[in-house]
Each structure stands twice: as structure tokens, then as C-alpha cells.
Amino acid sequence: MSGAKLQKSSISNQQSSIMRVGIIGSGTMGSGIAQVAATSGCKVKLYDTNQSALDKAKAALEKILSRLIEKDRIDADEKSRIQNNISYVDDLKDLSDSDLTIEAIVENLDIKKKVFSELETYVSKDCIIASNTSSLSIASIAASLKKPERCIGIHFFNPAPLMQLVEVIPAIQTSKEVLEKSTKIISDWKKTVAVAKDTPGFIVNRVARPFYGEALRIYEEGIADLPAGQAGFATIDESLKTLGGFKMGPFELMDFIGNDVNYTVTETVFTAFYFDPRYKPAFTQKRFAEAGYLGRKSGKGYYDYDDNGRILISTELKKPLDEKLAQQIFDRVLVMLINEAADALFMNIASAEDIDHAMTKGVNYPKGLLAWADEKGIDWCVSKMDELYNEYHEDRYRCSPLLRKMKTNGLRFEV
Ligand code: NAI
């Protein structure tokens, strides 16, 4: 299969010369990325317009590193080394000596474009200008630059220091050299790089959509309902955890991410794909978000939470799982995920290897979806999709042409 190539992170964290990295925005993502770069020996300048965000980032790092000392993961010297590698600045001009800048500010195209075009007036001509955007096109951000070929997407996952995957997204304007350099830098930071086409959701936020969407659809149809009006969230979650080995079920995960955040990602992807019904958001989640039932952070979502963010066990969770129902739920969500992964490969969004690594290292899936397709059998995937299509006659359940072709030719993904 053609497509971009996955690069394994290098064992060494030695930089050939000390890299200067400018990070714009010291919120959740910017501060995490700063920690990653500083840990790898880069000199980092973390910039924010909001002084309290800078103070918060500095205090948060102190806490994280102290905890790492307690856990014997680093020593005091390492802590000082990392801290001394980061300076906190409130003037964009201070990033003028950067070799690479990564922007992680508010998700707003106009604001990002303004910051990028100002930044370009300060940095050297060779400086790579990257964005950590989750949902905007890299081409649209690059268009704000005089030298758009220096622009690239470098998309970390939250929390950046812990999540292994980084998606690297060249825009149509990006030069080959900038792609190669960026990939090398991120690999040197001991991350696994997956190169993705500049399309909505890149790899992970596209391929993972059915995990939430199909679970919500199953819930809305009421097939997972238990007697006495119990909701079925726990039944769906338990089916995926028990039969699939997922660490969290879809409803637990949506509660963890936040129903507001997760709903917005789905809606953005749906709109960006010209309303393809495969990505259609669910009213259930919209209503939960509107009601303020955001999940763990608000104490109530699909589950109720105690003050420590732990799920308060519902009566439904205590009931034994109906085996046949659990299998039906698991098969339906899994085949929709496999179909999405196969279609991403069919559309050359990334290589088969990158698609599988993206899901195991970006969202901790127990297996790569294409490897899972081989395990279940391509015939099984096609017939399950056709069963769903025949039942609903909705475009949402169309089988990827790639799976169909593979079935005809007796092929496997062999990732
Ligand atoms: P955040 O709200 O935690 O932090 C944003 C920071 O940017 C704030 O400290 C704010 O003061 C600062 N800021 C806003 N406008 C600025 C400007 N013009 N100049 C300098 N600083 C400015 O946001 P978060 O969650 O860190 O997200 C940042 C970016 O990363 C967004 O593009 C988002 O889509 C992306 N992203 C977020 C992920 C997440 O899970 N939170 C995951 C991956 C990407």
C-alpha cells in the first residue's frame, strides 16, 4: 500500500546541535510540548499573551517534575536541567532565534493567521513554523505566510508528555525538506510519528469517530436497554471492554474527554466532510453537552462521579452481561472502526502501518484496526458491513471499496 512512512522514535535523544524551540501558547498543550522538547535537551521559549497562563505552566511543570522524582523516574539534576531549558516569555519577538516554532493557541483560524504572519517577520528564513491544530487545515494556516513551504502540522495528543503518538501533517505547500526535518525532530523527542494527509481529523480524530458515534447510535436505538429503564451506557462500555480489550468504553471515554469537547470534534469533522452521514453527530451527546453533563469534569455525564473523579457504580454495572447482546454491540462498533480505518487507507490519508500505530499509540487501542481486520477476516468485515447496510439502507453503513476489493482478491492488510 502506498502512503507516508511511519518513523520509529530513535533510541537516542542526542541532538546534533542544540535546537531552539519557540512554543506559542502555554495552555494544556503548549506547556506539555515544552516539557517534551526541554526533556530532549532543546532550549525552549514558551510564549503566551496571558501572564497568568505562563505562571500556571511554570507551577504545573514544577509539580509534574517533583512527582517524577518521587516516582524515581528522574533525579533532582534532571529536574533542574529540564526547568533551565525553558524560559517563559511574553513578547513574540523573543522567539526570533527559533529553529522551530510550534503554535498551540486558541483554535481560531483568524487569530492563528495573525500570529503566524507576525511571527514570520521575526524568525529566520529557515525556521519551521508548525501548528498543533486539531481541526483546522494546515493549508489554510500556511497561506498566512510569505514562505508557506515552511509551515507544517505537528499534532500532539493530550497529555503531550505521556502520549506516544505525534501526527505530522504536511500541507500541499509544505516542502519535502521541512517534512523530513520535522519528522526527524519529533522522532528525536522519542515520539512515534505518523504522517497524515491534510484532511479533517487527520488520522486519529477521523478513524476513532465510530467508537463514539456507533456506540451513541446503538444507545439511541435502545437495543442495549435493560429492563427497568436502565440506560445501557454501561452495557455498551462493558461489551467493548470485555470482548474488545479496550481500556475504557466509549461512554466512559466521552465522559473523560468531556462531552462538550468530543461533540465539537464530531461536529467539526462532520461539517468538514460535507455532511457525510458516517460522521453524523448524535442528539444524545448534544443534549448532554447542552445540559452541562460534560462528564468527569462536571461530576455528571453518562455516569455520576465522586469528588475524586471515580464512577459511582450504577445498578446496571452490577448486572451480568448478556453474552449475545455484548457480542452484537462489540461486532458492530468494531466493524465500523475497521471500515473507517480501511477507508482512510483507501483514500491515502496515511500508510497502513501509520494508521495502526496511530490508533494504538494515540488512543491506546488494544490492537491496530487493520491488523484486527486480518484477524477477524476480510470476508467477515464485508459481510458485517453489508448486513448493517441491508438492515438500515443508510449511506453511513457503506462498506469501503478497499475491503470489498480485498475480499474479491483474497488479500490481507499484513500490517
Ligand atoms: P488552552 O486553552 O489550554 O491554551 C491556549 C493558550 O493560548 C492560553 O494559555 C492562551 O492564553 C494562549 N493564547 C490565546 N491566544 C493567544 C495569542 N494570540 N498569542 C499567544 N497566546 C495566546 O488550549 P489547548 O487545549 O492547549 O489547545 C491549544 C491548541 O492545541 C488548539 O489549536 C487545539 O485545537 C490543539 N490541541 C488541543 C488538544 C487538547 O486535547 N486540548 C489536543 C491536540 C491539539
Fill in the keyword field for this structure:
disordered N terminus; Rossmann fold; 8 strands; 9% strand; alpha/beta; N-(1-d-carboxylethyl)-l-norvaline Dehydrogenase, domain 2; 415 residues; 18 helices; eight-stranded mixed beta sheet
Describe the model.
- The chain has 415 residues and is of the alpha/beta class.
- It folds into two domains: 11-198, Rossmann fold (3-Layer(aba) Sandwich), CATH 3.40.50.720; 203-415, Orthogonal Bundle (N-(1-d-carboxylethyl)-l-norvaline Dehydrogenase, domain 2), CATH 1.10.1040.
- It is built from 18 helices and eight strands.
- Strands 3-2-1-4-5-6-7-8 form an eight-stranded mixed β-sheet, with helices on both faces.
- The chain starts with 19 loop residues before the first strand and ends in a 6-residue tail after the last helix.
- 1,4-dihydronicotinamide adenine dinucleotide binds at residues 24-30, 48-50, 53, 104-107, 111, 115, 132-134, 155-158.
> Low-confidence spans: pLDDT under 50, at least 5 residues?
1-15
Mean pLDDT: 93
Class from secondary-structure proportions? alpha/beta
How much beta, percentage-wise?
Answer: 5-15%
Question: How are the secondary structure elements laid out?
Answer:
Elements (H helix, E strand, L loop, with lengths): L19 E5 L3 H12 L3 E5 L3 H20 L5 H9 L1 E4 L10 E4 L5 H14 L5 E4 L6 H5 L8 E6 L8 E6 L5 H13 L3 E4 L8 H4 L1 H13 L11 H12 L5 H8 L1 H14 L10 H8 L24 H4 L4 H24 L5 H11 L6 H8 L1 H15 L8 H9 L6
Parallel strand pairs: 1-2, 1-4, 2-3, 4-5, 5-6, 7-8
Antiparallel strand pairs: 6-7
Bound molecules: 1,4-dihydronicotinamide adenine dinucleotide.
